[in-house]
Amino acid sequence: MTSEQIWQAVLGEIELNLSRANFVTWFKDTFISSFENNRVIVCVPNAFVKKWLEEKYHKNIISALESVTKQKIQEIIYKIELRRGAIPVLMVDNLENKSEGNSPASQFKKKGAEENNNSAAQTANNGTVNQHGLNPRYVFENFVVGRGNELAHAACLAVVENLGKSYNPLFIYGGVGLGKTHLLQAIGNAVAKKTNKILYATSEKFTNNYIQAVKSGKAKEFKNLYRNVDLLLVDDVQFMGGKDGTQEEFFHTFNELQQNDKQIVLTSDRPPKSIPAIESRLISRFESGMVADVGKPDIETKIAILERKAIERNCPLDREILAYIAEHVQNNIRELEGALIKVIASHQFKGLVPNLKSVKEILNDYVSNIKTKSLTPKEIIEATAKFYNTTYKDIIGKSRKKELVWPRQIAIFLIREDIGASYPSIGAELGGRDHTTAMHSYNKIYQETVEMGNEKIKQEIGSIRQLFASSY
Ligand code: ADP
Ligand code: MG
Fold this sequence. Notes:
The chain has 21 helices and 8 strands. By secondary structure, it is α/β, with parallel strands linked by helices. The strands form 2 sheets. It has a 5-stranded parallel beta sheet, with helices on both faces. Strands 1-2-3 form a 3-stranded mixed beta sheet. The chain is globular. It binds adenosine-5'-diphosphate (ADP) and magnesium ion. The site of adenosine-5'-diphosphate has 15 residues, from helix 7 and helix 14.
């Protein structure tokens, strides 16, 4: 095997366990430049990626290398080197000079914390902060970093450090209540210390402002407002889907800002390509910087978040209680927070000290009232079946008939793109298929649609998305 082939096989293994956004961010433009005596030199495009691979993915890379080459790997050296023909990207300054042994996220976090601790600056800025439409409560300092949000968090800090220059735009996506608005506004609050020209708007507000401005003959003022900022934060861009006039205006706003190195940060409940009824030129703009996902937090992160919020509310709780809440409130952080507030409030109301039993009683009602809102693989498969006039059972079934293979591949593609599920779990959802089948199907559809731009398939996929978008 050549180094190139080895690395492709290694990437194939690594991709199995990562979301697409993570995989692309950290492994795009990596390659092996030398493989001798069980020492490997892995080349990466910049210092940011280097740190991240060294600290987060080193073990995965070693084990993938060992399983591909069937050799014990002695050493991996990560080296910053661009493949010939690659375009260098401006990166976080001096990352290499900072203290060793810290993950990029924690380095940034410290920095953010120091800044936030500067209470004089904080108070002085509170007035201005609110004037941008930002909630002063959403800062990096009280954002708990863990699995699920570390990529998005690091990217946000990189944006603050290098406004307009590191990742522009930064596009953050993920399910409801997972901290997108918090991160978006934290960027605003941090940048507010350096510049006043910040604008935060939900995409609905952008739309309404625009319609209002056109009606009252103030389109020019509208343009001036949105195009004359150093930082534009747009929350929930998925709601621009289907609104053609707004998309047109936003497209021009976007171009003007991006061309002048003015920072744009966007959030959405799904990746750019999955937003129904959005123009393809906007999709390509959204994808032109960095796309970072936020996923569900793991149990440790949930406990850490609860612990912090309980202390913020002057009501520290035992770990046992925190763990109970974390385990029983599954969906997202907003609900987690809601459950905690409920627990604290009802104890305070009754003048009781919380114990596990009293907490269980209170949460029983709460937990059963929570409805699952996030999209499931089953819903995607059902929508796909409906579109192709077949059934859920047939799609996950054994038959290899052409009329079934195609919908199956499309469903796999959609589950990967829109939920970010891992290949093994997709295989399991599709009637216990092997992960390689899932991967092969995904890649096939990805090539046809994204790389080759097959419009017919893109439309089919768009229609299926409309089907499941309306149900959730
Ligand atoms: P989204 O915009 O993704 O729907 P939000 O940003 O509104 O979610 O987050 C919901 C709530 O959860 C907010 O109160 C936010 O402060 C809190 N939250 C989310 N993620 C975190 C986190 N990692 N650390 C602390 N609080 C969080
Ligand atoms: Mg939000």
